[in-house]
Amino acid sequence: MHDVERAEPRYRRVLLKLSGEALQGRQEYGIDPDVVAEIAREIVTIHSWGVAIAVVVGGGNIFRGAAHAARGMDRVTADYMGMLATVMNGLALQDAVEKLGVQTRVLTGIEMDKVAEPFIRRRAERHLEKGRVVILVAGMGNPYFTTDTPAALRAVELRMDVLLKATKVPGVFEHDPLIDPEARRFETLDYMDALNMEVEVMDATALSLLKENRLPLIVFNLATGNIERVVRGDKIGTLIAPNARAVLVGVE
Q1: Could you tell me which residues come within 8 angstroms of residue 78 by beta carbon, excluding any fewer than 6 positions away?
Q2: In angstroms, what CA-CA distances link 105 with 70, 125, 222, 227?
Q3: What is the pLDDT of residues 76-103, one digit of tens each?
Q4: Could you give the CA distance from residue 218 to residue 198 in angstroms, rounded to a whole number?
Q5: I want to staple 175 with a disulfide (CB 3.0 to 4.6 A). Which of 26, 148, 183, 247 is the partner?
Q6: Coil, helix or strand for 55?
Q7: Which residues neighbour 198 within 8 Å (Cβ) at sequence distance 6 or greater?
């Protein structure tokens, strides 16, 4: 067993937020089974450390409600379709994790008892206590919210130590790194600073909820091994936390 697998985790209860785009890999659309299998492997590794883990998945690789609403579709209808896309992603992740021998439960914000259990906080906590990976889909069951907000809400409800947001970017930057290649990354940042900066990696509703409940957020790049690294406590990405001093690091 390699060193990462033997590592003592810094966090014992984590909620991992995955975008739908993370599951599509380099494809233009849909689910890449190899990418899902790699994410599942990392989840199983973290689970083997004794970490209680819940996962919130988005649906943008299949259907993005806000984008379709902007093109003329009724916003509520579009958002419900987006929620259904998250269910498909959640079932794909469940299949991949269980193929590696770890029990999972998919809990949904919209009742659909043929494929998933309804989200009930005490039931979710019981699954975590029994050592199951909990996959949370369909957001809160309400339109007009991105999956950031239900991720923050579930992290607070389930008394997580940290919310981990895996993205395509390495963290929060002082400027857009696509425009300014010399832009520096924040290693740490206070919630109020993040709100004032209107950072694009997490919506303001979710940030405000995390700030109010003093729950740390780590934004990091979903590269192979990074989920394990961040749970282990390696300083990657950006830690947004109460009273954290704004610390910038150089171009990487």
Answers
A1: 63, 65, 66, 68, 69
A2: 34, 11, 23, 20
A3: 999 999 999 999 999 999 999 999 999 9
A4: 16
A5: 183
A6: strand
A7: 204
